[in-house]
Structure formats: structure tokens, C-alpha cells
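[Automated response] Your request has been received and processed.

Submitted sequence:
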Amino acid sequence: MPHAWQQRSRFPEQLYPGHPHNFTPLRPVRTGFSALDRAVRDVAWESRFDLMERRIEPRYAGAECIGTPRRELQDGLVRGIRVRPVQNPFVRMRPAIKYRLNTWQSRNWKQWSPNLCNVRGSRRRYRVPQDIAPYKDELGEWHPPRVSGRYKADIEKQYYMNSLPWVWANDYYQGKLHYMDREPHGLKRWYRKEYRKAQVAEALKRADEMIEEYRKERRQGKRLSWVESIVKEFAGDQLAAPYVRTQKKPKM
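Generated structure:
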């Protein structure tokens, strides 16, 4: 029986090719909210194991040809803005980099797995996420992770090099507040005035409807006339209901 992470998911293809997230909107997108705005603010909603199936093996193109115009790598770009880290194939293959690729098991991309990872300078494979989190022994005592923070960062880098997000972060499914969505700094009167202008502009769009509601509310709030009060007094509330309006005091 294959494990859950070995079974292929049945999710639809992602909207952005090569992107581990699926940016298909789960709710209507507001007016003025572009694909780029979604890409930088979107929070993953699929299982970690389904996301890890979308791994893209790193490729190395070597140095570019002489005379080739330089153009930014288009992977992970939305409207010219990078929304996720990607592995740059046009890397200068210095001896230090060649040594890592030829010797370190953590850079052996043909046999790399997101669930069993090596760390740099070692041939031991660690289970992810079991070995990067504190664990409890048979006596109930807690112990620090088997992988130190230094090598945990190396495993995280391997995920990024394979075009995978770091799905084992504590706040991965919570997301982070985009810096453009934060409360603006400065004096409050600066942005309270602009907020008030936006409210007025939004209210003016339905001015006719609001005026009609106001007139209806004011009319219902008026006290009963002498004729209406006499009819209500002699006929009673039940018989006079179709002919006498009901007084409703406006909400304060």
C-alpha cells in the first residue's frame, strides 16, 4: 500500500505553470484585484503532500552564450514581479559549486525526495518533518530535534531549489500580512480624511435610494394625525390597521 505522499493527487492543474500553489480562486475576486495581487497574498489551501508532488527538478544551463541579451528568468514571475523563489539555471559553475554537485548527496537531484533529505557534508538521510521537530521518547521526556537549525535551513533551501515552498513552517497555512495591507504610518488625520472621502464616494453611488429611504423613515416617524387617532380610538387597533399607518420611531 503506497504512502499518502506517494499517491498522485486529483487536483486540477495549477493556473500558473510550474507553481506549486493552485491560484484558482475559491471566492469571487474583488474588482481591481489583479492576478499579481492574488499571487503575493494567496495562502495555500491544499495538502502539503499534494503540493510536494509538483516538484520541478533543478536544471543547470551553464554560462550564457556571448552576445545573448540578458533577460530575467521568467519562472515564478507575474507581470514582471517575482512571487516565489526559483533556482537560477544560468549559474557560473565554479569549482566550489561543482564540488557540491558531484560530492554532496543533498545536491543529488536525481534521487532527491522531499520526505528524506540529506544535509550538506553528510550522507545520512533525515526524515522530514519528524527529524526537524522536537520529539518525545518512550519515557515521555522531550528532546531537541535531531537536525540542528543550521542544517534545517539547508533542507529548507533544498525545497526552494526544487521550486517547492517550505510547507513545514508553523504559520504556513495562516499566511502573513502583506506590507501594503498594513495600517499606514503617520498622523491619523491624514488617512482618516481619505477614508472619509472613500465612504462619501461610495454613499453617493446610491444617493437616490438613500434619499427615498430617509423620506420613508421620516414619514413613518411622524405622530398620528387627529383623524388617524380618532379612527384608531373608535375602531380599535385590529380594524384600523389597514387604514392607519403604523408609527415607527427612527433608530438613533
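Summary generated for your ticket: The chain has seven helices and six strands. Residues 1-16 have pLDDT under 50 and may be disordered.
If you did not submit this request, please reply to this message.
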